[in-house]
Amino acid sequence: MGPTTMKAIQIQHYNEPYHVSDVEIPTPKPHQVLVRIKAAGFCHTDLMALNNDFNTPLPFIGSHEPAGVIEHVGADVYMRRLQSSDARFLVKLPDDMEFKVAAPLMCAGISIYGGIVRAGVPKGGSIGIVGIGGLGHIGTQVAKCMGYKVVAIDVKQSALDEVEAYDHAPDLSILATDPVDVSLQKIDRVVSSNYRGLDATVLATDHPAAFDLAAALTRKHGTMVLLGQPEKGITMSYHSTIYKDIKLVGSLVADTAEAQEFVTLFHQNKLHVQLTEWKLEEAEKMKQAYLEGSVNGKNVIVID
Predict the structure, then answer these.
(1) Lowest mean pLDDT across 117-121, 122-126, 232-236
(2) Which of 9, 100, 218, 292 has its CA 20 to 30 A from that of 235?
(3) Contact indicator for 48, 229 with CB cutoff of 8 Å
(4) DSSP code, position 26
(5) Angle at 69 between CA 57 and CA 284, to 5 degrees
(6) What is the predicted pLDDT for the residue at 79?
(7) Where in the numbering of this chain does the Alcohol dehydrogenase-like C-terminal domain appear (predicted)?
(8) In terms of Cα–Cα distance, which of 174, 109, 175, 176 is closest to 145?
(9) Domain over 5-90+274-302 is classified CATH 3.90.180.10
(10) Average pLDDT of 85-99?
């Protein structure tokens, strides 16, 4: 008989430090599979769940960015170290893709990909990725591979420098602290349109000021896709939204078919994920580093 317990970051009380617990290994139900987790990404939403922003029932196990290997299957089926998952929503990974690379794609990746798809911009159009963090640094590369003119927008020059060094670099980088008119002049030099600005902007940040900036840089009759979740809600000027007839689209994640498309696109184009590796026992240290802003890109727990 095999082991009956596993190591996991189980949240038993809201707002408590992350710690490793021994929990029972789940048994897959019909349509479910049991996955041995090899890597699990840390997402801002994990922090929100820990803070009880979603009223998530206790106890629950942290991370929703897993990658691993199927160990057992339940009936009707043709991060922790183990996890039961619905087989109908799994994404098959390429054989040569590292688990630590795949894990961040399962939320950050499919979130930004879904946002780009939902922008509905025809190939050859222009898209601005606002916020070059865990989602945004993937998004600039993805949008470029999808055939768009891409503008990276962030408050940190270091983040812009990072994506400019990638093989699939943006066409233009804009520092968010620059005056709007200066930024629009830069966009004019790379984007040809009947109206000034970008066909669409995808908000990959929850900083309140970013939403008004994105609206100002989006062209008349353009689209804004909202991924960021500001604590106090979204506020934008009616001058830059209503008077410009901008369409606002909320987006959560890509669906399963889109997620598989995204993984294929990512792999075929050899895209890059900036990540910092952590051990399971370092989960609280990882969380503190995220809160301090001392690491860029994605934080990933790698499990031996």
Answers:
(1) 232-236
(2) 292
(3) yes
(4) P
(5) 45
(6) 41
(7) 134-266
(8) 109
(9) yes
(10) 83
Amino acid residing at 291: L
Domain boundaries, the chain: 5-90+274-302, 109-250
For residues 186 and 128, the answer to whether their CB atoms sit within 8 Å is no
Fold classification of 109-250 (topology level): Rossmann fold (3.40.50)
183: closest CA among 171, 195, 169, 197? 197
Left (φ > 0), alpha (ψ -120 to 50) or beta: where does 66 sit? Answer: beta
pLDDT of 78 strictly over 80: no
The Cα–Cα gap between 118 and 223 comes to 9
Dist CA 130 CA 148 (whole Å): 15
pLDDT tens digit sequence for 8-26: 999 999 999 999 999 999 8
Which residue carries 């865990």 as its tokens?
134
Q: How far is residue 202's CA from residue 153's CA, in Å, rounded to a whole number? A: 10
- What is the 3-state composition of the chain as percent helix, strand, coil, each rounded to the nearest 5? 35, 25, 40
The first and second tokens of residue 195, run together, are 């109206």
The tokens 């009947």 sit on which residue? 194
Q: What is the CA radius of gyration of the chain?
A: 20
Within a 13 Å sphere around the CA of 103, how many CA atoms are in the beta-carbon half?
32
Mean pLDDT of 60-69: 92
Predicted TM-score (pTM) of the model is 0.90
Q: Is the pLDDT of residue 242 over 50?
A: yes
Q: What are the tokens at 179? A: 């005056």
